[in-house]
Every structure is written in structure tokens, then in C-alpha cells.
Write a structure and sequence with these properties.
Structural class: alpha/beta
Strand order of the largest sheet: 3-2-1-4-5-8-9
Largest sheet: 7 strands, parallel
Order of helices and strands: EHEEHEHEEEHHEHEHEHEHEHEHEHEHHH
Number of strands: 15
Low-confidence stretches: 206-210
Number of domains: 2
Radius of gyration: 22 Å
CATH topology of the largest domain: Rossmann fold
CATH superfamily of the largest domain: Glycogen Phosphorylase B
Number of helices: 15
Strand content: 15-25%
CATH architecture of the largest domain: 3-Layer(aba) Sandwich
Shape: globular
Length: 393
């Protein structure tokens, strides 16, 4: 089968979308048919420049920055088209060509012109203005960080995606929660897959070093990730004289303001802003973590950081964003979005009960191994492509 994979972003860029599309495409390239030959002949198209990345190391053909005409020819020669992140140009070209098209949703572009379901500047979860036809609210939200022209463009492209999406073979959702939100036909839920460590090593680490003292945050330091909520919760824990250390991994435009806030709250000595760290440093820091906190306000369709730490056997406390609730299941604690007091209560419960931390870590690891393996994700994608080709024939 000739499979054309399109993603607007790819290596050498690093991010959640880039990681998932790389994992799926390389996994598909390894699948063999009944005759022992590769089942999928993959061409991967992206708008990301190669830079110093060596495309020859990839197990498929790479095409970077094609013109619209070149992209149309590539789509015409493919059996099935896979589009990541609802990219509009290949979506339209796929519609014109009549090729079986699969769209993998990595965001809310079909229901939110801003793409993150967060009302700006209030920074509150959006109640669904676009689907309710309240387009003026959408324009005001988009206008917060851009001009009116850009806001109108985002609204129009959302309408276009909404028109085209029902006319494709399958809309792949990483969670059932996202499928419920976007309300598109032909929806198929396929959870993201992550590299799973050796289970015996993870269990050993969890039993020997699970600690209620070190709390960990991983992510960009931007308002949508809810790091401010975590800082306020840490201050509440300090007032209750609970002992802990909070390590913040990541960087972003809010870092200086957050560092200042920790000093104002009198918890500067208990909070370490580590910035971006190397893989080796990350492994060391995570290895000493007792609890990972993921306090996002909105904009989450799956939660790779949740699944990855589940696989490590670490206890998690997350906001009750729908995607996190689905991924975590009963193997962790959740709190109301943006509620620092409820987050502090959840953390206090764990800090005062080290055995519960270890038990949640064990449950989280078991769920990760059951639900979020790479081979499971790849095989479920392959099944969708086979159905798409069979329907076309």
C-alpha cells in the first residue's frame, strides 16, 4: 500500500505532534505483509526544513517544503492519505483527488479558531462558543493575541475544516473525550503509544525511591499549562508546614513572573526552576520524583507527559481536563481546573501517606502497559488504512 503521511511539523523539531507522527510512521515502515515484504510504502511530507537532520536515516522517503503542485501529484500517486493536525491544504487536495483520507486530530482546530479551547484573556475553559454559533466570542478571543485580520482568518479556516472533515474516511482521535468535543462523523479512537521501559526496572525504582518529598512539574512555562495554580498550591502546603521540594522542568515566557511569585509567597527556597535539562539530567530528576503534577487549564487532547510518567511508575496528580481523566483512569488523583486549594488538598493527602504514593505509581504503570504501547497504536492505525483502501476498491 502506498501511504502518504503529511505533518506540518516534524524532526528536527521536538514536540508532542512530532514525536507521535515519527513513532507511527517508523512503526508502519517495519510492518511486513504475508509475503514478507514491507506492507506500507511510505512517503512523508512536511513543511519543516531538514536543517542538520539526516533524512537518509529514516526508513521512508522524505519530501520537505513541496509546492502545492508537487503535493497534489504526491497525493494523486498514493493509495491512502494520512494528515496530522488537520492541515488545511492537504485536506482540501485530498478532497479534490477523491483519495481515501485519514485525519489524526492533535488539537481543537475543528471547534476552536484559537486552537486551544481557552477563553482569552480570562484564561478560562471555553464552553464551546464556535459550535454554539457565538462567532463574535471566537473573534474576540483570537483578537487577544493577534489582529482582527488574523482572527477572521482563523474563524474562516475553522469553518473550512468543519466542512471537509465529514467527507473523509476516518477522524482519528487520541481520546474519546476529544471525539465527544469535536463531534465529527467517522471518528475512531486510537490512544497514543509511548516507549515503555523495562517493567521490572520501573517496579524496583518505584519501591525503593518513591518519596513524598519531591514534587515534579514538566512542561512549558505558559499560562495554559496551569503552573501558576501549582505555585499557589505549594504555598498553601508550606503554610500547613508540610515538607516538600518542587522541581520545575521547562522554560517559557512566564518563568520570571513565576520565580518572582515564589519569592513573594515565601517558598523560593523550596522551588527549583531547572529550565530545560539534558536527557541524563531528566532521568536523574524524574528518578527521584515522588509525585508528578500536571495542572493544565485547557488545550490538552491526550497528555503525553501523563502517560510517560505513568509508565515510569510515578504517582500523578492532574487537573480534571477530560483527556487527562481518560488517560489516568483511576490510577491517580485529579483536581478541578485552576483550583489551587483542591490541588493542595490532593497533594497533602499523598504527602501524608507515602504508601498511597507507591500504590498509585504501581496502578499507573499497569495501566500504561495495558493501554499505551507503541505496537498497539501502530497496529490500530494499520487496520484503519486497510479498511480505507478496501472501501475505495
Amino acid at each position: 500500500m502506498k501511504l502518504l503521511f503529511y505533518s506540518p511539523v516534524f524532526a528536527p523539531r521536538i514536540g508532542g505532534i512530532e514525536t507521535i507522527v515519527y513513532t507511527i510512521s517508523t512503526g508502519l515502515a517495519e510492518l511486513k505483509g504475508a509475503d514478507g515484504k514491507p506492507e506500507f510504502e511510505i512517503t512523508f511530507v512536511t513543511q519543516t526544513p531538514a536543517g542538520e537532520f539526516d533524512d537518509a536515516t529514516l526508513p521512508f522517503r522524505m519530501v520537505r517544503n513541496p509546492s502545492v503542485g508537487e503535493l497534489r501529484k504526491l497525493i494523486g500517486s498514493a493509495d491512502v492519505l494520512h494528515i496530522a493536525q488537520s492541515a488545511l491544504v492537504p485536506l482540501f487536495l485530498g478532497y479534490l483527488s477523491g483519495k481515501p483520507t485519514v485525519v489524526e486530530h492533535h488539537g481543537f482546530q475543528h471547534i476552536c479558531p484559537a486552537g486551544h479551547l481557552l477563553q482569552e484573556p480570562a484564561e478560562k475553559p471555553c464552553p464551546g462558543h464556535f459550535l454554539a454559533g457565538r462567532y463574535g466570542e471566537c473573534l474576540r478571543c483570537c483578537r487577544t493575541n493577534s489582529n482582527w485580520r488574523t482572527a477572521f482568518k482563523k474563524l474562516i479556516t475553522t469553518w473550512a475544516r468543519r466542512f471537509l472533515a465529514p467527507r473523509i474516511f476516518a477522524n482519528i482521535m487520541p481520546t474519546e473525550n476529544l471525539g465527544t468535543l469535536v463531534q465529527l462523523p467517522n471518528a475512531v479512537t486510537i490512544h497514543h503509544g509511548i516507549p515503555l521501559p523495562d517493567k521490572r526496572d520501573v517496579q524496583s525504582r518505584s519501591r525503593s525511591t518513591c518519596s513524598p518529598i519531591r514534587l515534579l512539574y514538566q512542561g512549558r512555562l505558559v499560562s495554559t499549562k496551569g503552573i501558576g495554580t501549582l505555585i499557589e498550591a505549594a504555598a498553601l502546603l508550606h503554610k500547613q508546614k508540610l515538607r516538600f521540594e518542587l522541581v520545575v522542568i521547562g522554560d517559557g515566557p512566564e518563568r520570571k513572573a513565576l520565580e518572582m511569585r515564589t519569592r513573594q509567597l515565601g517558598i523560593g527556597e523550596f522551588v527549583q526552576f531547572a529550565g530545560y535539562v539534558s536527557d541524563a539530567e531528566m532521568a536523574a530528576i524524574v528518578g527521584e520524583a515522588g509525585i508528578v503534577i500536571v495542572p493544565s487549564l485547557a488545550g490538552e487532547v491526550f497528555g503525553l507527559v501523563v502517560a510517560e510518567n505513568m509508565a515510569r511508575g510515578i504517582a500523578l496528580v492532574t487537573s480534571d481536563v477530560g483527556a487527562f481523566v481518560e488517560v489516568l483512569g483511576s490510577a491517580g488523583k485529579t483536581f478541578a481546573v485552576g483550583d489551587s486549594r483542591e490541588l493542595a488538598d490532593r497533594l497533602k493527602e499523598l504527602l501524608e501517606n507515602p504508601q498511597l504514593i507507591c500504590e498509585l505509581g504501581r496502578q499507573a504503570q499497569e495501566r500504561a502497559f495495558e493501554c499505551f504501547g507503541i505496537s498497539k497504536m501502530v497496529s490500530e492505525h494499520a487496520a484503519v488504512y486497510r479498511r480505507a483502501l478496501a472501501a475505495e476498491r
